[in-house]
């Protein structure tokens, strides 16, 4: 006998209002025996069967500088077994403008106008980061809720359009925690350390791959406590906060990246993922 399909909508997004910079949990109401393929914002979606055995999920998001307006969320459900066939669950998703503040900062001149030697280093490190972000575990390595990396006051600095020393303008793509130097920094969720070294702008930096294109980045550390290739569990110590790299003072910069998109860490921390994975 075929089970009746639940009456709930086939596809739901959380948060419901999709904004630039927002992580999105995509839920598809389909049986476990189905095969799902999806694509959004030019990226493949990696669906996984939920922990509570009720639905399929994919974690995705819109870049902080992503285009606002209509976007096409493509999802194809292929039914296995005798029934066969495919169901097109695609829909249009409206991306709304997020209203982030603006600010001005003053840093050491070498971070605004690097010399040729520093520029060469920056270029080399850009290539390295590109290589690191090009590979992610095919399945999610995280489980349960993401946790704040430090016990320190967070700021709402994500998405701020900043001017450095009155000239260089850039968007702040992470969350700053007011962590005194030497504060323990922990893994926001389980994963694999894919970068653990000192970089020009980031200072001592640890990047954790949480699988399916999702990464968290911890920057400006005074000390790195993990090595590249190391598996870490949620809450595991990965280093100590500091003031290395391009900073105005000691703090932890924590960033969340999905594929090429930088997402609001505060929104990821608010997500209830306990039933999901
Ligand atoms: Zn920052």
Compile the SSE list and pairings:
Blueprint lengths: L10 E4 L8 E6 L6 E6 L2 E3 L2 E2 L6 E6 L7 E10 L7 E3 L2 E5 L6 E4 L10 H18 L19 E2 L6 E4 L3 E4 L3 E4 L5 E3 L4 E9 L3 E7 L4 E8 L1 E2 L6 E2 L4 E4 L11 E7 L2 E3 L1 H6 L7
Parallel strand pairs: 10-12
Antiparallel strand pairs: 1-2, 2-6, 3-4, 3-7, 5-6, 7-8, 7-9, 11-14, 12-13, 14-22, 15-21, 16-17, 16-20, 17-18, 18-22, 19-21, 22-23
Bound molecules: zinc ion.
User: Could you tell me the strand content as a percent range?
Assistant: 35-45%
Q: State the assembly state of the protein chains.
A: single chain
Strand-pairing-aware structural class: mainly beta
Q: Based on DSSP secondary structure assignment, what is the total number of beta strands?
A: 23
Described by the principal axes of the CA atoms, the overall outline is globular
Per DSSP, the total helix count is: 2
Uncertain residue segments: none
Q: What hetero molecules are in the model?
A: zinc ion
Largest sheet: 8 strands, antiparallel
Order of helices and strands: EEEEEEEEEEHEEEEEEEEEEEEEH
Helix content class: under 10%
